[in-house]
Amino acid sequence: MTGHAAATDRATADRPLRILVVDDDDLMRAGLRAVLSSDDSIAVVGEAADGYEAVEVARSTTPEVVLMDVRMPRRDGIAATRELGETVPGARVLILTTFEDDDYVFGALNAGASGFLLKRTRPEQLIEAIHMVAAGDSLLSPSVTRTVIDRMAASAPPDPAIVGRLRELTARERDVLQLVARGLSNLEIAAKLFVEESTIKTHMKRILAKLDLRDRVQAVIVAYETGLVRPGAAGPHGDSG
């Protein structure tokens, strides 16, 4: 790492993550703000009560992570997520949902969300999730997303162009993609493959570049769509989903 890059990383690490909270429930927004304000590594830079406000506030505050409700008046979280991807591309969206919201989550991931959490998630898990998403990880808990991923994989045949690009991956890159699709973090993948975490990050950058994908969520979807990973099948080195 160059001196400039190291200095940039240190500066970023010293600066709180900028968070936008979007929910039509005043009490929920207040609760989320209270939870997040207890952590010095996070700064709530704005709130919004619907999708229209979310886009407007995001444009003016440039958050790094948006905590997005799905069911809201005027404009829902799916439409807002899609527009944020076009107008505030640096903002990563973390959907807040309930078990009953599978249809909405399915749409939100297709719209560009980086993952989702259940609204009853514990405060410490919420904070950890925000940091994961901000760092570029996806948040796809197998226990919650299995149905959603299965539906994505079954919704349409894979794009032939994606299938062709998948053949460009090295054997190790395919191993990494399979493990990412099974919900492992970079650190967990590094431990399983006996390499440094920085090596996994490099593999992920190459995978996303070769497949022309935006983030890990899209990579997971491609892995299931193309059959590289199948629900319940053993993954690299004998792990199972």
Automatic annotation (TrEMBL):
Modified residues (4-aspartylphosphate): D69
Record domain HTH luxR-type: where: 162-227
Domain of life: Bacteria
Official protein name in the record: Response regulator transcription factor
SUPFAM superfamilies named among the record's database cross-references: C-terminal effector domain of the bipartite response regulators, CheY-like
Location of the Response regulatory domain: 18-134
Key words of the record: DNA-binding, Phosphoprotein, Transcription, Transcription regulation
